[in-house]
User: Fold these one by one.
Assistant:
Number 1:
Amino acid sequence: MKTTEVAEEGSRPDRVRELEERNAQLRSDKRKATSEVRALQEEVRSLTREVQRLTVELEKIKHPPLIVGTILDVLVDGRVVIKSSTGPNFVVPAADFVDRGLLKAGTRVSLAQNNLTVVGVLPSSRDPVVAGSEVARRPEVSYADIGGLAGVVDEVRETVEYPLTRAALFEELGIRPPKGVLLQGPPGTGKTMLAKAVANATDATFLRVVASELVQKFIGEGARRVREVFELAREKAPSILFIDEVDALGARRSDDGTSSNREVERTLMQLLAELDGFEPRGDVRIIAATNRADILDPALLRPGRFDRVIDVPLPTHEGVRAILALHTDSVRLGDDVDLDDVVRRTGPISGADVQNLCTEAGMRAVRHGRSVVLHEDFLAAVRKLQGDDLPGAVRGAVGLYA
Ligand code: ATP
């Protein structure tokens, strides 16, 4: 009996320890289980989100594609006449949920595929080319940034800037300013800069479109783009609409009768129509630029259209010097740099070439680990420009200035 009591007493601490260990184990298991539950809850949430996303995607995929149409007329009974992108015109009803106030001639709408019912009004979306055209409110180019074109700048100011800033004076004097101004000259001579500088001086919006991007292979697309570009210019007025490479559109018409040629012609006709319908004293000024005025369709140059042609030639010796001074203004030049010597060695080059020259010289300095541009960098840049970079015609004309 005594022995049993001793044995029982002896086992109690063991039992307590055992229970404590068991307790600790259970606590640890509980912690693990709790964190697993949390992880699983998080996973459930993320899977629910994924299911929602996939459900939306699935809905989109199940939805039949809609046809795009343009409203031509809204009839008194509420039905609309639409021109669909598939071709003919149709008279169709509009679904009840479509806001009747938004149904107007010219609005783009979506149509159900089976019965062409109007099921939605599309936001007025511009063609990506038009929407993506360079639009800048007060571009950061001023007349002071343009070198060697003093006479040209004056002419551009008179024909483009003053009709905007002194419109009342023109009105009083009864003078009709030129409707459109055509800048013609070799590439890189500063035509775009001139247009931007006018926009800057007049606080006007600058819009630049490249004519070759307006021409489309689908019938009527080019004309629509021209219309939209002019619409945008009017919307953003006062504005300067700059049409670059206008020869792509207005090259003299040939009679080869191909459909692509007819489409270019249609686009040109739309441009002419827009120009004709334009108020010369209005607050939208139009500037076009070309490297090839000689191949332009005479219709473009008729009075009331681009009736002022301004030559933007390659800069003279002094012009190149002035442009070089502008482009090296913020460059750290070594004491040995003699810009006159650089100009003497370049021969006739455009403003863009001068810019390239400075970049090349700067790059050479960087390549040699210098933080200052030396005369030898400019000489190396001139050699590179004369050797590899000049277009053939100019390279042929390169001769050292006397
Ligand atoms: P393109 O006919 O190829 O469109 P462009 O005549 O419109 O050329 P710009 O785009 O105006 O030429 O000029 C290109 C760059 O060349 C300008 O960003 C500018 O750095 C430089 N440049 C050209 N002409 C001049 C100039 N007269 N003064 C200062 N920089 C000039």
Number 2:
Amino acid sequence: MTSLHVSQHPLVQHKLTLLRDKNTDHRSFRELMRELAILLCYEATQDIHVEPKIVETPMGSASGYKAEETIGVVPVLRAGLGMLEGVMQLLPNVQVWHIGLYRDEKTLLPVQYYNRLPEKTSIQICIILDPMLATGGSAVATIDLLKNVGVDRIKYVGLIAAPEGVDRLSQAHPDVPIYLASLDERLNEVGFIVPGLGDAGDRQFGT
Ligand code: PRP
């Protein structure tokens, strides 16, 4: 059974509202995506493994923790790139594996044009970054690729989704938890999320 986490954090909701606004310019849009990615990634990493660690402060010893897991981050080009910088600030030691997919406008099926996954990996956890979960085709294809190289613990971090995409992803990969800022109403007749925010790639890159 998939776990679906839709953030209730007021800052996420505030920033998402600005992101949706059609009057938000490209520069602000990119900055909001970066900030939202940090906030959602913070929520998605609540269960990563830490080991106890003693550290010396200027005043003596303190017991603390060290995050031990090797984390991989997979931005789905293009739109997922806007989430990467913030996540790398939060998790500076991650490995980044780029995947390039675009959605064919007629069939709505994902077409792969770039893949920098390793052939095999011992990585323990992978976080997929893609702001839009529409039909779910791109997310399912990305997870298929990750499982093929041996990643078995995967999390999907998006910004907004249509119910159709959540259903498709959870049926195909029920073991992958989904983290979102919003679950929107529906897909329209051309496969865009409504009310959504338009095309996240175009709005970031001015195309
Ligand atoms: C968008 C989005 C996802 C995909 C979601 O990418 O970033 O990757 O569509 O749609 P799906 O759930 O129906 O597969 P797009 O094809 O617009 O490419 P871009 O990121 O290069 O703009």
